[in-house]
Each structure stands twice: as structure tokens, then as C-alpha cells.
Amino acid sequence: MAEGDRAGLVALAEAIGYAEGPSALLRQAVTHKSFANEQSGDALYNERLEFLGDAVLGLLVAEALMAAHPDLEEGKLSRLRASLVNARSLADAARARGVGVVLCLGKGEERTGGREKDSLLADAYEAMLGALYLDLGLESARAVVAADFAARIDAGEPAVAHRDHKTALQELAQARFGEAPDYRLVDERGPDHDKQFSVETWVDGACLGRGQGRSKKQAERRAAREAWRALTGG
Questions:
Q1: How many other CB atoms are found less than 10 A from the CB of residue 8?
Q2: 3-state SS, residue 31
Q3: Would residue 192 show up in a list of annotated catalytic residues for this protein?
Q4: Cβ atoms of 80 and 136 closer than 8 Å
Q5: Catalytic residue among 54, 135, 200, 220
Q6: Beta bridge partners of 197
Q7: Which residue in 50, 109, 123, 126 is the catalytic one?
Q8: pTM of whole model > 0.90?
């Protein structure tokens, strides 16, 4: 098992408003389940704080988006929120805060590069917000979210152009429906040297896109593009 950098945790605590150093909840927020499982006794880890932090983050981002864009309709606000509150975006925010170096990880996660995994960093960022909310209140959490996301909130454009549509669709589907898209191969024609694949993309029980290509991946990308456009109107 590997404890995170203690000096880094002190610096993180100070940066997000802990005048007296890291609290017990903040230490819990940066403790992964794999580390807790290797401790004796009932060691605490960050999953419950992540649950709370997810709700806090969603509220604060929604609030900020409504304030920054009073004329946007609900659909566009939802797309903006989905482009902000996803694993990649949160992991980037966590990296900027130095969260990776302070994580407490089990031996397996340490060996496999857990400090750089988007999923672990995103979870820890949400747990950090949950701890901050409980320790110092909503205004302190709001200040951190504003500092980390204000520029993108003010810009008012989903960051889709720089990502493939499969990634964008997955993030949107997870945010809106709590599930990943389902890609179904529905047709395969032609000789081995000139195959044509047809794939459907299903989201929330509905077929929202169909794509064709010379490979399954190409067909999936095209189907994802159709599905993303169907959900966003883009």
C-alpha cells in the first residue's frame, strides 16, 4: 500500500480553504478503497464522500451555468453540464490541484498507475468536494468549483469538437441516463478484403443512430455521431 505525499496534502488543503490543515474527512477523500482494504480494522475510504460530492458538484455547476447563460434553454444547459461534469474533465481538474500525488492507494493500484487513472482522480475530486462541503460549507465548495470551471462555464460551449463522438456520447449518456451506449452489430457483408459493417447505437432503450464502415470501429463512430446529434440537436 502507498500513502500519498503528506506535504502535497497540506498544500492541497490550504489551497482549497483549510486554514488549519487537512481534516479527517479530507484525508478520507483521498483514500481509495484499495488502500483501506489493506489496513487493519475498518479503515474509511472515499466512496461515500464521492456520492455527496457528485451531488454538490452537479448543483454548483448547474447554478453557475444558469447564472452565466440566462437565455439558454434546458437542453443546451444539460449538454453544457454533461461536457463539464464527466470523468475526463474532473480528472483534469484533479490533476491541476495535485490530487494524484496525495492519493492513498493499495499496492495493486499503485503498480498499475492509479495516480494517473481518470476514474480514480475524478472520484477523488468529487470526494474532496464532499469533504469540503461537510467541513467548511457550500460557499467553500462553490469557490473551488468556480476557480476550476469558471472559464469553461463562461465560454458556454460543450467541449465536443476536440473529442470523438463515441467519447462525447458516452459522457452525455452517463450524465443523462446513468448508462453507457450499447453498440450492436446488425449487418456484415462482403468478402474479407472489402467488408462493410452496419452498427446501431442504443441509448436508454432506443436506437438513436446507425452507421456503416469498413471496420466495426468506423461504423460505431458514425453511429455514435448520429446518436449524439439525436440527443443534442447538434
A1: 17
A2: strand
A3: no
A4: no
A5: 54
A6: 188, 213
A7: 126
A8: no
Closest residue by Cα to residue 72 from 155, 149, 143, 172:
155
The grid coordinates listed for 9 are 496534502
**In this structure, are strands 182-189 and 196-203 parallel, antiparallel, or unpaired?**
antiparallel
Q: Is 73 a catalytic residue?
A: no
pLDDT in tens, the chain (234 residues): 466 678 889 999 999 999 999 999 999 999 999 998 888 767 899 999 999 999 999 999 999 999 999 988 888 888 888 878 888 889 989 999 999 999 999 998 888 888 989 889 999 999 999 999 999 999 999 999 999 988 888 877 554 444 577 887 887 888 788 888 999 999 998 888 778 899 999 999 999 999 998 888 889 989 998 888 888 765
Residue with cell 460549507: 137
Q: Tell me the CA distances in angstroms from 130 to 3, 46, 53, 176, 230, one per residue in order.
A: 21, 9, 4, 21, 34
